[in-house]
Amino acid sequence: MLSGSKKLILVITAISAFLCSVQADDYAALLAKARDYESKGQYAHALGTYWDAMESAPGKASEACDAYGRIARTVGSGAVGSDNDSYTSWIMMYTDLESYCLESGIYALAVSELKKGRPDKTTGTLSYSADVSLVKSKKYDDICSLFQTGNKAVRGLKWKAVPADFDKAVSAKVPSGKDYSVQFALEDRDGNILSKGELQQLGKTSVVYVFSGLSEDVSAAIDDGVAKIVPVVFVRNGEDIPVKLTVKGGFSTDTHAVALSQFDYGTVAVKGTDSKERNFSFRMMSTEVTQLQYKAITGKNPSSFKGRDRPAECISWYKAVEFCNLLSETQGLTPVYSIKGSRNVGNWGTWNVKDLEADAGADGWRLPSLNEWLFAFQEGEHGSSYAYSGSDNLDEVAWYGLNSKETHDVASKKPNALGIYDMSGNVWEWCFDLDGVKTRRSIMGGSWLSGNAYCQAAEGHSYAVDANAATKQFGFRIVRSAE
Questions:
Q1: Which residues, other chains included, contact 344 with Cβ-Cβ below 8 Å and sequence gap of 6+?
Q2: Listing from the earlier edge strand, what are the strands of the sheet with 365-366?
């Protein structure tokens, strides 16, 4: 198991606009901006801005969601431009896509753990290296997928023959990794720069980034997890415009790096009072923890039904607790859980439920309590009377026994009114609570294999299994106390 920041693989954004969550107050402004782009036929800009609007107001962005879907259907079907000018329309669309990519920041940078090199015999200094590669944001992948699908459709519907210069013109519109250069620095916990590397061009895949001439003190800071690698500038070749980067932290252990900003802008604020006058104030991940996210944190993927955007399963309650602390540590938060006074999972060894302590005042990630889970399932203060989370029609909101033979990508069904997905079906979700027996913990929501009744949830109606259980039906989602 990974322990300490020595094992981290940082994931950072290419441009701060890609990473930073947009405040809910900006929803109206984003919606107006997106409408303007749509009216001008700038579909890439419109799709991207509607996406930002949806993220800015989870659960309350129905108009942006409908508009995104409307454009997605138009673009994906190839129904852009008339029969006579569709070629020109598509060239213009790809030009707009290029412009949007350059303005909004389509990439995240995945950086492997620092590897120690051999000492320089002449100077006595040390060097460290890291593999750096570009990964595209989910927003970019989704928009480009729509363009590709629509382009394929229009070739069959409207074009008897593909214009000779079309593919060449289109391929030139989408920037690639070799267009960019990056410079990193080593920084201590107080934000002091310990060393800077050189500005280096990124290739199509990964490149090796080297810090050389390091003193023993800097080397010790890296080895002790005190120093971290941070971006300094990001440049698009030919434009020579340095771009300051925003760091969110995080790590991965394979080439499928994940921007851990997902753990921030993928959360929903859940606040209010339930029917029993209990007050709630926390943030919950809008999706179950995915396999990509789980592997990024633990270096392992025990899931039976493999897929980066599918929920992580075959996860015991113990492993879910450990994940919470590892993620908290990664993001510089105070871990909630401790064993014999230690919050460092690497020091826990084989541990028992009775030894675990939870710090209610810590700002890190944790499993939801049963009451928190139920409050979110029932759509918070909305006080939904739906049988399932978000609908009386289970097929609208869940993957369950009558429509599935395995798990599916998270967020591929309708969310509830809070913007939370899959609280009914897909995988059972662990809660922190005991269920009478010390070795048993509550699970909620049903799974891809469950019947209708198990996908419902109500006060006093929960299920419990041994905390060590780890079947292909068991996953989890996480929460943080509201700031």
A1: 3, 4, 325, 329
A2: 267-273, 279-285, 479-481, 365-366
Residues 238, 176: Cα–Cα separation, whole Å: 13
**Average pLDDT score over residue span 413-418:** 91
Residue with tokens 């993928």: 266
Alpha helices in 158-279 (DSSP H): 166-171, 216-223, 262-265
* CA-based nearest residue to 326, from 349, 350, 308, 343: 343
Flag the least confident range among 4-8, 219-223, 335-339.
4-8
Lowest mean pLDDT among 154-168, 352-366, 389-403, 455-469: 154-168
CB atoms within 10 A of CB 96: 21
| First-last CA distance in the chain | 30
Please answer whether residues 452 and 430 qualify as being in contact, where contact means their C-beta atoms are separated by less than 8 angstroms.
Answer: no
Alpha helices in 277-339 (DSSP H): 291-298, 317-330
Helix (H, G, I), strand (E, B) or coil at 216: helix
User: Where are the strands (E) in 188-301, listed by range?
Assistant: 193-196, 200-201, 206-214, 228-236, 267-273, 279-285
What is the C-alpha to C-alpha distance for residues 58 and 265, in angstroms, rounded to an integer?
10
DSSP 5: G
Structure tokens at 131: 């593999």
Which neighbouring-strand residues pair with 195?
186
The strand order across the sheet containing 428-435 reads 463-466, 437-444, 428-435, 474-475
Q: Determine the Cα–Cα distance for residues 334 and 481; give it in Å rounded to an integer.
A: 12
Q: Give the Cα separation of 46 and 67 in Å (integer).
A: 9
DSSP state of 289: P
Compute φ and ψ for 444, nearest 5 degrees. Answer: -140, 155
Digit-coded pLDDT (tens) for 85-97: 666 777 788 788 8
pTM, to two decimals: 0.52
Q: In angstroms, what CA-CA distances link 149 with 58, 76, 142, 145, 461? A: 27, 5, 11, 6, 45
Alpha helices in 158-298 (DSSP H): 166-171, 216-223, 262-265, 291-298
What would the DSSP string read from start to end of 18-76?
HHSPPPGGGHHHHHHHHHHHHHTT-HHHHHHHHHHHHHHSTTS-HHHHHHHHHHHHHHH
Q: Which residues of 123-138 are buried (b: 16+ CB within 10 A; e: fewer)?
A: eeebbbbbbbbbbebe
Three-class DSSP category at 427: coil
Query: What is the tens place of the pLDDT at every residue in 438-452?
Result: 678 999 999 999 999
Rounded distance between C-alpha atoms, residue 5 and residue 113, angstroms: 9
Q: Which helix (H) or strand (E) holds 115?
A: strand 115-116
